[in-house]
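Schema walk-through. Below, the input block comes first and the output block second. Nothing else is stored per chain. Lengths vary across the set, and this one has 497 residues.
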Amino acid sequence: MNYFIGLDSGGTFMKAALIDSNGRQLAISKVPASVLNTRQGWVERDLDALWDDAKYAIEKLLKSVDVPASQIKGLSISAQGKGAYLLDKQGGNLRNGIVSSDSRSLDIVKEWQKKKVPEQIYPMTLQTLWTGHPVSIIRWLKENEPENYRNLGSILMSHDYIRYRLTGEIYAELTNISESNFFNSLSGEYDSRLLAIFEIEEAWSALPPIIKPDQLAGHVTELVAQETGLEVGTPVFGGLFDVVSTAICSGITASSNTLNYVMGTWAVTSGIACEIQPMEHLYVYGHYALENQYIIHEASPTSASNYEWFVDYLGVDGAFDHQANQQLVAELPPAASDLYFVPFLYGSNMGLGIKSGFYGLQSHHSKGHLIQAIWEGILFCHNLHLDRMRIRFPEADVLRVTGGSTASETWMQMLADLTGMSIEIPSIDETGSLGAALIAMVGAKEYRSINEGLAAMNIDATRVEANPEYFDQYQKKYQNYLKLVGFLKEFEEQKND
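--- output ---
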């Protein structure tokens, strides 16, 4: 039996899983992700700490199993997209990494929006424009840290940086870099015209060669082998954007009536297509892991991380009692309270700069009401993305849902009742790790293709059907939620007038 390691670099944990060629997870290790919030809107990671997390996760994993390192035939990485993890011209860390949920470039992006820059670049990039894109961060660097800008050597994303530390080789992986706004999605290459539009032409030399997900990127170095227990020369493959990894593991295809929901740090709704369709809404198209296919998705940092933030206030000893919380919500009438929660702790999906908060809170409201409102608010944010995606995918009537939230039967029933769609929950706990391991299997020729590997793994799913009697009630509250956020947006725009 051959074995593969899938490394999943997320916003909450660094995870390393050992997976055999049948797709069975033999073991997994988790290390809490260390994130720095030193200023309003800043979300950073110490790059050496990020690498230490990856090393420790791998070392911890290998010590937990009785599998010789020589039987590990490949490693790959699934990771958060966007942000900027920068090297200097000597190949060292330039500064702390800047995470995709960072908003320090807010004023820059607002100015670009006034100048209609998003509309100007979309025909080339097939991307929207916001603060977490590498181009926004690099422009901020130019204006605020000119010395670092002059010493900029390589622009990487999270998995690119970890792969660099594993192998010493510098690449930008296709599924992630295709959503950077450096990349012309139609030509499949970087485009210097984009850097000119953003006035960061000097950064052209810092754009690394592009590598495909299953392409060999290098091999584990001797130093890394000593530090982790891996064998020297273990192949390391390109890897992939975690949204792509989850879509692969969910089983959605370009020919299915199924969309993928990710309920984690980010709220993500994804579909797969083989062609670009001109439509009024500017959909985000990223290059998929399958040749000549696009992943189309709507996303915002408005999902379950907004619930996890409350653990110190609604939990016990730094953790939620999920069963108890679920019971509290289950005892309440569905969508019946006048309490609303806007889950914008890490960013908004209805306008730049709108803040989070409760509205309608009264003295009779209980802990259960608070949790119910948080869960509803998160679902409403997801539903905004779903409404848009169902215009692009009008035949979709099934949601494949992944993420930690799927463990709550009550929350999943709320989702089904709000959307009126059937919910399917794949029997996979760690889609990031499995997707990365599958990419390594294809790269190492264990399987000829991703689809062949998935078929061999035979992943099943549980199903949740909607209660039609609650649909109108949820939709009414959802429409009221949209009105509330509209008022907040107006306030945010006018408060300094």
